[in-house]
Amino acid sequence: MIEMENINLIKDIAKDLDVIKKQLQNTTAKRWLSVKELSEYLGYSKDHIYKLKEQFFIEGVHFYKKSGKILFDRVAIDSWVVGKDQNEIDLKKQKIVDHILSSI
Predict the structure, then answer these.
(1) 28 CB contacts (<8 Å, ≥6 apart)?
(2) pLDDT of residue 1
(3) In degrees to the nearest 10, what's the CA dihedral of 51, 53, 55, 61?
(4) How far apart are the C-alpha atoms of 93 and 46, rounded to whole Å?
């Protein structure tokens, strides 16, 4: 039998279980994300994800196209978020090189 003063403890235990559940889900997060999943993961709109893909993400590094679907590598995206400034410089250089090579 549960005593009345312990009823609030049940609510606290339920909240703690929710926190543990979310932490477990985060540790087993999948590596390959769709546009929708990446937008939820980063907190950006899907349109913004497409803009980032065109401006900053490199195919074969940050994303891959498989059977008409775009799959983003969560590990590479995490690295991009953390080291954004250096990656932006490298990506701009890569775009310049790609442009030059495509015009040859």
Answers:
(1) none
(2) 63
(3) 170
(4) 26
> Residue 29's Cα: distance from chain center in Å?
10
**pTM above the 0.70 mark?**
no
Note the pLDDT of residue 89: 61
Token reading at 38: 């990446």
Query: Residue 102's CB: how many other CB atoms inside 10 A?
Result: 7
pLDDT tens profile 33-66: 999 999 999 999 999 999 999 998 989 999 999 8
CA distances from 88 to 48, 60, 79, 84, 95 (A): 16, 16, 12, 6, 10
Domains and CATH numbers, the chain: 31-103 (1.10.1660.60)
